[in-house]
Amino acid sequence: MIKLYVLIAIMEVFDRLMSSFGQDALDSLYWNTRFRPFHRRVALSVVVVLIYSIVHSLILFVHIATLNVAMNSADQSLLTLLVSGNFAEIKTSVFKKFDRQNLFQLACSDVVERFKLTLFLLLVLLLNVCQDGSSEMFREFAKVAAIVLFGEFLAAASLLSTRLKHTGMITVQARGNGPVSTIMTECTQGNKLRGIVRGNFDNLDGLSTLQELLGTATLAITLEPAGKERYQGVVPLEEENLSKCLEFYFYQSEQLPTRIKLASNAETATGMLIQQLPTSGDREKSQDDWQRVSSLFETLSSSEQLTLSHNDQLYRLFHEQALRLFEPQSMQFSCSCSRQRTETALISLGQEEVMDISEEQGLIMVTCEFCAQEYRFTARDVSQLFEPEDPRIH
């Protein structure tokens, strides 16, 4: 560890020496090519600059290699030592007095140092990605796109569930032929939420848009009021994002002017919906009000949605309007799976097929894809599904 630390320190010293020498060499080359372009010293300056570039590049490559070893070492004390050394160096620079004439040179050095550190970190990351076993790490980065899209679907289901006037459930589902084949989210009138994503997550490299992830897809909105007939509306996923697709759904199915903004990252999902309600008053004034509110709504950015509270968002957009705020309601995950529903699903497969699976595997295990709950059925459990025992009378 000490040898590696010394090697890194030596590389930093050589880097600064070569930087100073390179500045003089480039100044000499510039002066010679401008004031005496046909002098023999021009060729000498070119050779010196080429040798300098090769040597300095080799030093930087060795520096990157040692940093890569330090960052991937199991002993984190070396990395801590390097960071503390840089802080000590920054401290000496901050409390040092500089002349006004040297401020421009100081600013240029600061820009170069930031560029070099950024480049070093990117190259170290690239080395880790290209090494063995890095495909799993790169795959995790690619999955973020699917997580962000899934977050937008969860936010959409939460928003649309507020339109349920009676006990029931709303489902937002998309099916396509892309790497992400299915996204489905459900939300009940009681703010109970669940969802699932299916697809080939190994083929998400470089994909981020809705069409790239889902391919040619359709969006289905299903309303299931308790004790009433189910209603479903289907629209193609042809817009640039889910928000625009949902706006098209409202325009086509309910013919209500609607604006929706959804935003999501790996940790947060949020959304906002405004809708023009039918009115029997002055239609022209109502339309003007809707245009003004829509224009203000379009100024809301995704970053503001993810960082600002709901009250702050509403104040920034509609602080000149008289708003009525309701009490906030918390969302919670809830799965409707149960052993009884699983038994019903097995019975629907038929006695012969279920018996064959039981004889072949010995134990039937059914796992809920929403909550990962496992339901196990032994051979005796399976036989009781189709041939229940007669109750005994004592």
Radius of gyration: 32 Å
Q: List the strand order in the largest sheet.
A: 5-4-1-2-3-8
Give the topology string: H per helix, E per strand.
HHHHHEEEHEEHEEHHHEHHEEH
- What is the percent of helical residues? 55-70%
CATH class of the largest domain: Alpha Beta
At CATH level 3, the topology of the largest domain is Hsp33 domain
N-to-C span:
80 Å
Oligomer: single chain
Integer average pLDDT: 80
| Model regions low in confidence, pLDDT < 50 over at least 5 residues | none
Describe this structure in words.
With 394 residues, the protein is an alpha+beta fold. The protein has 3 domains: 129 residues, no CATH class; 187 residues, Hsp33 domain; 48 residues, CBS domain Like. Helix 1 packs antiparallel against helix 2, helix 2 packs across helix 4 and helix 11 crosses helix 12. The protein is flat and about 100 Å long.
Helix and strand topology:
Blueprint: H1 2-35, H2 40-71, H3 77-94, H4 103-130, H5 134-161, E1 168-176, E2 180-188, E3 192-199, H6 210-214, E4 217-225, E5 231-236, H7 242-254, E6 258-264, E7 269-275, H8 283-298, H9 302-307, H10 310-318, E8 332-333, H11 339-349, H12 351-361, E9 364-367, E10 374-377, H13 379-386
Parallel strand pairs: 3-8
Antiparallel strand pairs: 1-2, 1-4, 2-3, 4-5, 6-7, 9-10
Helix pairs in contact: 1-2, 2-4, 11-12, 12-13
